[in-house]
Amino acid sequence: MIIVIYDDLRNIVSVIKNVSGPIVNGNDITWEDGSLTGVQLPFLLLDDMEITEITNEIIAMDRKSEFPFVDFKKENGVLKQENEMNSMAIMELAELIIMGGV
Hints:
The structure is a single chain. The protein is α+β, with helices and mostly antiparallel strands. The chain folds into 2 domains: about 1-65, no CATH class; about 70-100. The chain is built from 2 helices and 6 strands. It has helices at about 55-60, 70-100, and strands spanning about 1-5, 10-15, 25, 30, 35, 45. The strands form 2 sheets. It has a 3-stranded antiparallel beta sheet with strand order 2-1-6, with no helix packed on it. The longest helix has 27 residues, at about 70-100. The termini are far apart.
């Protein structure tokens, strides 16, 4: 993959090649062999190709949304909370069954 950084006039500022395992978190991009933080210009994450200009068609091929940052600690917390709620519901249902309420 490549990262293409361009300006507001769609002039290409920089092209970073050989991007493997990208993760996009707002204006930060990390990949296996590097990172860019606080990118202040628009950028695209594209399959390997030669880019000579930024067109609407090229922008439409952007793959940033396919490589989002996932906060696993936050996700784990949500899953734990859901698990606790499910466990409580199962226990309440089991009590009702045992007591003959269902």
